[in-house]
Predict the structure.
Amino acid sequence: GAVVSQHPSWVICKSGTSVKIECRSLDFQATTMFWYRQFPKQSLMLMATSNEGSKATYEQGVEKDKFLINHASLTLSTLTVTSAHPEDSSFYICSANDRTSDTYEQYFGPGTRLTVT
Amino acid sequence: AQSVAQPEDQVNVAEGNPLTVKCTYSVSGNPYLFWYVQYPNRGLQFLLKYITGDNLVKGSYGFEAEFNKSQTSFHLKKPSALVSDSALYFCAVRRGQAGTALIFGKGTTLSVSS
């Protein structure tokens, strides 16, 4: 089946630094990828929709200058958390659509645990 | 706007007993509904989906879900629970047309005791 990977799986950074998280579709092409954020024991909240070759669409309340998204190819999207603060600590999960699937099956990555100290 | 509700924060069941995890939905147009499971510190694993067709959808690991249009429900079921089924379960609805994001319920923690 289709596989989505994320790197790194976990990262600890100091307050004020930036962190980049990669999301890759390993065996399919994804014109659209999504970034979600999950706090402990809570639901996934959609942050943004990442479209290959164009600007990302951010959800209301998500700071686009803080959470930079780049979707440079059909298999890679990156999320950069800029000037991270402790409140940015969270579990970030990406998903990707298989453009060849009639139902646009969505596949999820394993997530990245970000801890900002 | 599309939404799903999971009325139970936690469901407790004994191993071997049937389990049900509830989900209701609110959509405009045809509903595209999904169930996912999440184990601690892991991503989401797909269980099943309803797009169209039979109201009873069979999925992975022995799970099934019943789509009920009149009650706007999509409850997840399994005839005989396993301890290893203990996890966090999410119901989700597709936001719009094919290729759009999923909107998730708050999640239900399933605890299966031996």
Q: What stands out?
A: The interface with chain A takes residues 32, 36, 41-46, 49, 51, 88, 90, 98-107, 109 of chain B (CB under 8 Å). Residues 47 and 60 of chain B are 5 Å apart (CA to CA). The radius of gyration of chain B is 13 Å. Chain B has no helices and twelve strands.
